[in-house]
Every structure is written in C-alpha cells, then in structure tokens.
Amino acid sequence: MNKSATGPTRISVIAGSLAVMLVAGLLLAACSNPLASELSTPLPPEYLPTAAALTLAALEVNRATPTQPAKMAVSPTIELTKVVGESTTVLATTPALPTATPSPESSPTTYLPTPTLTLTPAPEGLASVAVTVPLGATNTPAPPIPDARIQIYRLGELSKVVSALDVSLRLTCGYAKVVRIELYGEDGRLLARDVRTYNKVPWEAARIGMSLDFEISAAAELGRLVISAEDPFGRLIEVNSMNLILLSQGITELNPASGLQQRIIIQDPVEKTLIQGGKLIISGRARPETTQPLRVMLVGEDGRILGQRLAGVTTVVPGDYGTFLAEVPYSVSEVMPALLTVFEEGGTMSEISFLTSLNVVLAP
User: What domain range is 155 assigned to?
Assistant: First the structure.
C-alpha cells in the first residue's frame, strides 16, 4: 500500500516544483528587462494609429543626416529675341545662374559656374542676327599734334615786347619761294616787315633770325606778328601768327613759346590725291582763336579759285583742338593740279592768322 500511494504523490510534488521554478524564472526575466515595466500596460485600441504615426516620424528623424546640402535657387533666364512679323526668334539665351542658399546648419562654400552665351540659329526663312559681346571698352588715343611748319621760337602768346623785336623762326614748308615776316598794330597798320626770297625750291628746312624795329604812339597796344610763306605761283601755302603786347618803353617780358605746334591739321585727303566727281571731302583738326568757321579753298596755279566752302570746328573742351568736316564743290573741265588751303581769318589786325595747305589733283 505504501508504494502505490507514494508514486502519484511524488509526481505531483515534482510538477509543483517545476511550476514554481517556471514562475520564478519569469519573474527574474521581468526584473532584468527594463522595457518590461513600460510594456506592462497595453494601449487602448483607439490610440494605436496615433502611436504608429508618431513612431514612424521618430524613426525618420533618427535616420536623417545632421547636415543638409545647400539648396540652389535658380535666377530667371534671359533671352534675346527678334520679332519678324508674327514670328519671334530666340537669338541668344543666357542659362539660369544657380545661386547658393545655405541652410542654417551648413556653411560650405559653393562655387558657381561662369555664365556663358549660347546662340540659337534662327529658323529657316528668317534673317539671322549676329550678336557681338564686347570684351571691354578701349580708349583710342587721338593722333599726336604735329610740329608747326612755321615755328616761332622764344615768343609766347601776349608777350610784352619793346622795340626792337627779336624773331627766331624755323620753317619746313620747303616749297616756299617767298617768306614774309610782318608786324601789325591793333588797327591793322603795318609796323614792320622783312621779306626773304629763296632761289632753290624745294628746300628741307630754313632757320631765320632777325630784329624788327617798330614805333607806336600809345604807351601800349595789341599787335600781331605774322609769318607767311608763298609758293612759286604766289599762293599762300603756310601762315602762323602770334599776338603780342607792344610797349613804347619799358622792359620786354616773354611768355613761354606757344607757336611750335600746327594749329590747323588736314587729315583727309592726303598730299597729291586724285579727286573726282566735282566734290572734295575734307576733314581734320584745328584750334582756332575765335568761334568763327574756317574757310576752305581750292586754288589753281593761275590763282583762280576753283571752289570754296566754310567749315565749322566742333570742340569738346574749350581752348583745345576740335574737328572739322566739309564738302567742297568744284568745277573743272580737265584734269589739273590745285592747292587745297584751310585758313582762319584774322579780323582787323591781319587778313589771315593761321593757314595750311596741300596739293591735290582735280578731275571732272
């Protein structure tokens, strides 16, 4: 009897012991897991969608990088178009220029590409237009002012002089047959004159020096020294002048020489150019004493005036060199040489104050 009762009892004891050990193991595992206390209370079913959305948002934040690259803003595209009738043709397009817009968390330097100009050919049937983009403005200097063909040394404009007046000249107008040195008073009367004649023409250069004696009735008056050169036909080919203050007594006071540069410069045409069609176009530079226009003449070898015209001088800076342009009509029946002269009239004191010339050939 004792043996049969002991077996079941022992199995029950063992099962109870195993149950106790399993419960103890579960309790130990729950104590060792930190999330067990958090998950011990389940969420109500109506809160599950909200919890899932929040969980997914948190996961996206954790996966994002700590710094974001700079976003590029695009500037408007500029197009050069041509409208022909009802059609519009794109001639040139500048691509959009990216500009860096850094985020608050990033500060890297972004280098932008250099903008380029793209030309798009016009569709068939429309005229194409060439677009030229200048690389940079350049200043073209004016040609230098040449030396005067009659240079007046020592004396400067409005120098105060007493008698005798010392004159020093250099002439390079080699076709001059006669050279005149004249001194005029303020009313145009001739106070002194010296005439030089050259037997050999042409010559390269001539140097002249002399003294001019003069007398005036007033204590002082305005005068003008005029040097002129004539060719073998008696035509004026060069004139230079200088305004002076003439003193009856006192001390000579000279200003710096101002008669060393050419006052009238013919740039077009050039020497011995053949002119046809009854019109001559002349252009050049000048620094006149007054605002009056220059006079342009075509003179034949016999002294006959073949054509003439006035030419105004356009000056940007007062007192500086300006430009002139004129169209001179002429009339000839055959090919003949002529002298093209440009001069400034001298007013009361002298007939001409400045003159220059060159030889041309006129044809009908």
Answer: 147-261
